[in-house]
Amino acid sequence: MPSKEPSLQTIALTSLQGKEGFIDLSKGQKGTVVFFLSPECPLCQSYSLTIKQLQKTYASQGFQFIGIVPSKDFTVADVIEYRNHYQLKALPLWFDPNLNLAQFCQATITPEVIVYKPNGQKVYQGRIDNWAYELAKKRKLITEHDLQNVLEKMSKNQAITFYKTKAVGCFIN
Questions:
Q1: Cα–Cα distance measured from residue 1 to residue 3, given in angstroms and rounded to the nearest whole number
Q2: Backbone angles phi, psi at 160, to 5 degrees
Q3: DSSP symbol at 32
Q4: Which of 87, 109, 125, 146 is geometrically suited to a Cys-Cys bond with 167, CB 3.0 to 4.6 A?
């Protein structure tokens, strides 16, 4: 019997309530934004306001936002504390304890973001913007808003082809 190829929508994740779930791309009419996050990564903490603002702006335009914690090193309490402290209560957070989704998506850094069209086509992967350009090095002025630019194009139904930027942050392991 041939094995079924994994897809974004068939890789099991674990909710904060301990239930198994999957990413449902149909919930993002315009697209789905997947953030790989680590509660102890300083850049994930620093980007929480930006994530919250992007979600507030684009969720109402038909985008689904999901946070993935790719590790078995964090407890539910750790993730809830992170979510509450950084006011990310509107962002659904899921565990990827065996890194199956991270490996499938080829995500290697937190924070790293991937944007999918409703049909499952990946259109962007990488950094949120160019604020952090190396570990412990940040610009005073952000000049490239990569994720926001992708969401703007998609919200206006403009053509977009896949592109990738280098994410900076903590390694997924």
A1: 6
A2: -145, 135
A3: E
A4: 109
Strands 163-164 and 93-95: unpaired
Given a contact cutoff of 8 angstroms between Cβ atoms, the answer to whether 64 and 31 are in contact is yes
The verdict on pTM exceeding 0.85 is: yes
Alpha carbon distance 50, 129 (integer Å): 10
CA pair distance 39, 14, nearest whole angstrom: 16
Residue 142, SS3? coil
- Number of Cα atoms under 13 Å in the Cβ half of residue 43: 25
Q: Where are the beta strands (DSSP E) in the chain?
A: 13-15, 20-21, 31-36, 63-69, 93-95, 109-110, 112-116, 122-126, 132-134, 137-138, 163-164, 170-171
Per residue of the chain (173 residues), give pLDDT as tens: 444 677 888 999 999 999 999 999 999 999 999 999 999 999 999 999 999 999 999 999 999 999 999 999 999 999 999 999 999 999 999 999 999 999 999 999 999 999 999 999 999 999 999 999 888 889 999 999 999 999 999 999 999 999 999 999 999 98
